[in-house]
Design brief:
Elements (H helix, E strand, L loop, with lengths): L4 E2 L4 E4 L4 E4 L36 H10 L4 H13 L2 E10 L4 E6 L3 H8 L1 H17 L3 E6 L6 E7 L4 E3 L10 E4 L14 E4 L8 H7 L4 E3 L19 H4 L2 H19 L4 E4 L4 H5 L8 H19 L27 E4 L10 H15 L3 H4 L12 H13 L2 H17 L2 H4 L3 E9 L10 E4 L1
Parallel strand pairs: 3-12
Antiparallel strand pairs: 1-2, 2-3, 4-5, 4-14, 6-7, 6-11, 8-9, 9-10, 12-13, 14-15
Length: 447
């Protein structure tokens, strides 16, 4: 005799796997294990100088794990990073125009500055730091002096997930950055750990400190501030992880895959109305959830016994029909349909869409720019919507770009560029989207 196979608290297979029964309880996604609400400072014994990134010093590794298990997070963060980079970074001079009574910006034609900005290492810095910025809010730019020590000749970035700050000294200054690919198991004393001195961005003597030091390589700390964080800032979208939405989004495809593998052999689905149970069991409202589930499973066992076994061949499901003695209304009958009509219902699509919308809000990207999320609504917005949304997004990028460009201003001061060109600024050139009546050629703008 066949047994009842309980797929979860909602769906079960009976009748040798040919009948799928929906007893009404929502799909149980399981207990969500939350990540720590914030990477916190954790004082450790043993004199280790490292300020842990997260309670177990593995917060970046946890973030990467979440991103790699998602079909949406990585593309959204990549989209933001590419938008941040624009086409290129140029140097301009901010000067006052007497005729208009306004400050204007004029491009600087300087071979040394242009060569530095157009160098592949600088472009690589923009690309890698933009990725680390949107993943973690904490890029780790590396600056290298030339042999003479009078110029900064290189800007790059260390992978943020490999970096850890030293604990602050008595003056509240971070003096070292430890780089190792083996966190959280690495230690400051490991031979694989590379130790960099750190520039104090708040010091008024930062230029002379670096110039007079014999150290050739430095880390310049940049980040976008988040309240209450000492060493590592918390990216705005990390709340998507903390609140459990990342786990929900990841559970949905797993549940759908498991469901599909186990119900493809079923020929029929039976749906039992939710108000069937209190009509049949007068004490239903007083029962606990476990007691209700037990009664439902017992009923399934009885039905399965009627359907399976050689002596029951040819039998059908017994569907009792009667009157509710309290309200004198018909007790809703069970609904029996062929399985083909139910597999197209889009189970969990709304759950998936809700998780996607929370992610869009968390990362701060208008859905019209990257396409609507999964679900039944697949519209991506009109061309006008996209153009307006993109212009708004770009207009708000400047605060983030200021973070990424900050080391360039340090370099400009160190190399004497700012003294040579008063009002020197670094601007990002990007494409401004045009309407059809303005022609097919895009217009370049600097922001």
């Amino acid at each position: 005799m066949g047994k009842v196979e309980h797929i979860d608290n909602r769906f079960s297979l009976i009748g040798d796997g040919q009948v799928l029964v929906d007893i009404g309880d929502p799909l149980n996604l399981g207990e969500i294990k939350k990540q720590p609400a914030t990477p916190i400072k954790k004082e450790e014994g043993g004199g280790d100088d490292i300020a842990p990134w997260g309670e177990d010093n593995d917060f970046p590794q946890r973030v990467i794990s979440v991103v790699e298990s998602s079909t949406e997070i990585a593309p959204l963060l990549d989209w933001q990073a590419r938008a941040m980079q624009g086409r290129e970074v140029i140097a301009v001079q901010r000067v006052y125009d007497d005729s208009s009574g306004k400050f204007v910006e004029r491009a600087i034609n300087d071979e040394e500055i242009d060569d530095f900005l157009q160098d592949t290492t600088t472009k690589r810095y923009m690309r890698e730091s933009s990725i680390d910025f949107f993943y973690f809010w904490n890029p780790f730019p590396e600056l290298i002096k030339n042999i003479k020590g009078d110029k900064i000749a290189y800007i790059g970035t260390q992978d943020a997930s490999f970096c850890r700050w030293s604990k602050q000294n008595k003056a509240g200054i971070i003096e070292k950055c430890y780089v190792n690919a083996n966190w959280p198991d690495a230690k400051a004393s490991d031979k694989e750990t590379i130790v960099y001195p750190v520039i104090d961005p708040y010091s008024t003597e930062r230029i002379e400190t670096v110039r007079q030091s014999k150290e050739q390589r430095w880390i310049y700390p940049i980040s976008y501030p988040s309240p209450g964080k000492v060493y590592y800032q918390l990216a705005k979208w990390h709340g998507f992880i903390v609140a459990g939405w990342a786990e929900i989004a990841r559970s949905i495809p797993q549940a759908k895959k498991s469901m599909m593998k186990r119900v493809l052999s079923a020929k029929y689905v039976v749906r039992i109305p939710i108000n069937y149970w209190p009509a049949v069991y007068p004490d239903w409202p007083k029962l606990s959830n476990d007691e209700k589930l037990t009664k439902k499973k017992l009923l399934l066992e009885n039905i399965n016994d009627q359907l399976t076994g050689s002596e029951n061949a040819g039998k059908t499901i017994m569907n009792e029909f009667g009157k509710d003695p309290i309200n004198n209304q018909d007790i809703p009958a069970w609904e029996i349909k062929e399985i083909e009509s139910t597999q197209k219902s889009g189970e969990h699509l709304e759950d998936s869409r809700e998780a996607s919308e929370h992610l869009m809000r968390a990362v701060g990207v208008d859905p019209t720019l990257v396409g609507d999320g999964p679900g039944k609504k697949m519209g991506g917005g009109s061309g006008s919507d996209k153009r307006v949304a993109f212009n708004i997004y770009v207009a708000l990028l400047q605060a983030y770009r200021d973070v990424i460009l900050e080391p360039l201003y340090f370099i400009a001061e160190y190399n004497g560029w700012r003294k040579k060109y008063k009002g020197l600024k670094f601007k990002t050139v990007e494409v401004e989207l045009q309407t059809l009546d303005q022609g097919s050629t895009a217009k370049e703008t600097a922001n």
